[in-house]
Amino acid sequence: MIQEFRDFIAKGNVMDMAVGIIVGAAFTAIVTSLVGDLINPIIALFTGGIDFSGWFYALNGESYASLAAAQEAGAPVFAVGNFIMAVINFLIIAFVVFLLVKMVNRIKDAAAKPEEEVAPEEPGPTELQVLLEIRDSLKARG
After folding, report:
1. Entry pTM
2. Residue 51 — very low, low, confident or very high, per pLDDT cuts 50/70/90?
3. Using one digit for the tens of pLDDT, what is the confidence trace for 92-139?
4. Strand, helix or coil at 128?
5. How far is CA 94 from CA 123, 125, 140, 142, in A?
6. Total domain count, the chain
7. DSSP code of 113?
8. pLDDT, tens digit, for every residue of 58-77?
9. CATH number of the CATH domain containing 32
């Protein structure tokens, strides 16, 4: 059982998956910073300083200074701004992954050497042509 587990762990797919998860976690931190530190301020500039993460609706009808204050008070809230930020994060991640896949495919295509084009062989004589040649050959002998 331990040997099977070692074999399973040693397989390339498991190691590739582990590396992918680790790189994905690091990539998530980069995208979170990109959105929070670069994109949100630009969006806030165009929307008059609105911060999406501050958009929320308290379902108990009371007014709170911030989402954190409402959550600390235990009020049920619709955190609309957090949802919008999650959608923006998804779109950015999806776009970056698209660009990465496109780049990898381009590199793969460039690395794959096109096989030397072999000139197509001319087709041989048809059966009728061979029979006609045999007939002509026999006529010439006889």
Report:
1. 0.52
2. low
3. 778 877 887 898 889 888 888 666 556 667 778 888 888 888 888 888
4. helix
5. 51, 58, 78, 82
6. 1
7. P
8. 889 888 888 888 888 989 99
9. 1.10.1200.120
Evaluate whether 23 touches 81 at the Cβ level (below 8 Å). no
Q: Token pair for residue 119?
A: 């000139």
Q: Provide the 10 A C-beta neighbour count for residue 99.
A: 10
Residues 24 and 31: their CA atoms lie apart, in Å, by 10
Q: Which domain holds residue 43?
A: 2-141
CA dist 7 and 18 (Å) reads 15
Helical residues (DSSP H) of the chain, grouped into ranges:
2-10, 12-33, 40-46, 67-72, 80-111, 127-141
What burial letters (b/e) apply to 106-121, b meaning 16+ CB within 10 Å? eeeeeeeeeeeeeeee
The pLDDT of residue 115 is 61
